[in-house]
Amino acid sequence: MRVPSGVRERVAAVHGDCPLSERLRLYDGWADRYEQDVAALEYRAPHLAAASLAFVFPAPPAGARLLDVACGTGLVARELHRRGFCHLHGVDGSEGMLEKARGTGLYRQLWRCELGREPLPAPAEHYDAVTMVGALGEGQVPSMAVPELLRVTKPGGFLCMTTRSNPSNLRYKAELEATLEELERQGAWQKVLAQEVEYWEKATSKEESTQGTGYISGVVYLYQKCPIPPFEE
What we know:
Blueprint: H1 5-14, H2 20-40, H3 45-56, E1 65-69, H4 75-82, E2 87-92, H5 95-104, E3 107-112, E4 127-132, H6 146-151, E5 153-164, H7 170-185, E6 189-202, E7 215-225
Parallel strand pairs: 1-2, 1-4, 2-3, 4-5
Antiparallel strand pairs: 5-7, 6-7
Helix pairs in contact: 1-2, 2-5, 3-4
InterPro entries: Methyltransf_11, SAM-dependent_MTases_sf
GO molecular function: S-adenosylmethionine-dependent methyltransferase activity
């Protein structure tokens, strides 16, 4: 089944070339229809990310403190809560999205934060795990913001991130992976998983589709912060 034209237009708008203030305004306006639209896209990233994190998490998750970055309306929080994570904080740049997230009752705290322009509103080494699902992409959060996720993660804690592998995001994906690899080379974290998933979500155009499947692919990245700070000469 084809993606409805209204969904295609809203997705194209938030991924278009526009100033951040305009993009956040578009997200504010999308908040009421967001979950309906991503359901039409069969968007699997929240489920895949939460399942990956839960699989590797070494301790009972109920007591773990977790930060959901670019939390949107709370789709990732729902998946995490089903898997026993209940001490959730969230940040997002869109007040409209945060308003929907508040309505879920799944977050203990929520803040507005424009990641890439300002630091996360949390002290260093505060969270047992950090997730960022969906916002690492062309025209969204810059890859240079990844070290800020690492800053607020406890030594030994986990970071779970995703990006898309559709043609219009390949330049960003290469830039992101270079950042991830450089942090690993520096000894800041260790890669646990980098899983390419073919049926990530429905494509919004033929050009974006993977080999005519009607879907785009994506990647789940999972890293563990090294417990000992890297040696600096």
